[in-house]
Amino acid sequence: MALAPLSQQEIDDKLAELPGWAFQGDKLTRSYRLGSHFAAAALVVHIAQVQDELDHHSDLVLGYHSVDLSVNTHSVGGAVTEKDFGLAGRVEALARTHGVKA
Ligand SMILES: C[C@H](O)[C@H](O)[C@H]1CNC2=NC(N)=NC(=O)C2=N1
């Protein structure tokens, strides 16, 4: 099935299952706090690996002890799709393995 933009209701329903994630502007967003700058950088590298595997790539901003992520789907004009939520679920599971709490 072709990728389609999700409705606001669909986005809200999916966000209810993803604590910490938000819909801001036209993107799904999440901010992570880590125990050190190096730990944050390690999470960025691990996220990049998953994003290449999925062939879907968020913007990633590495800060001091922090990682800020935002994603939408370029191929449907920058709307949020199932692909963005698929990525969000994978990243969230990954963040747990880096010691991030829900
Ligand atoms: C050719 C390649 O599959 C596409 O350019 C992919 C790569 N990563 C992507 N990432 C995001 N966020 N949106 C896309 O539409 C997208 N498209």
From TrEMBL:
SUPFAM superfamilies membership: PCD-like (SSF55248)
Pfam families: Pterin_4a
Gene3D superfamilies in the cross-refs: Transcriptional coactivator/pterin dehydratase
Gene Ontology MF terms: 4-alpha-hydroxytetrahydrobiopterin dehydratase activity
Alphabetical UniProt keywords: Lyase
CDD domains: PCD_DCoH
Reactions listed under catalytic activity: (4aS,6R)-4a-hydroxy-L-erythro-5,6,7,8-tetrahydrobiopterin = (6R)-L-erythro-6,7-dihydrobiopterin + H2O
InterPro entries: PCD_sf (IPR036428), Pterin_deHydtase (IPR001533)
Protein name: Putative pterin-4-alpha-carbinolamine dehydratase
Species of the source: Streptomyces cavernicola
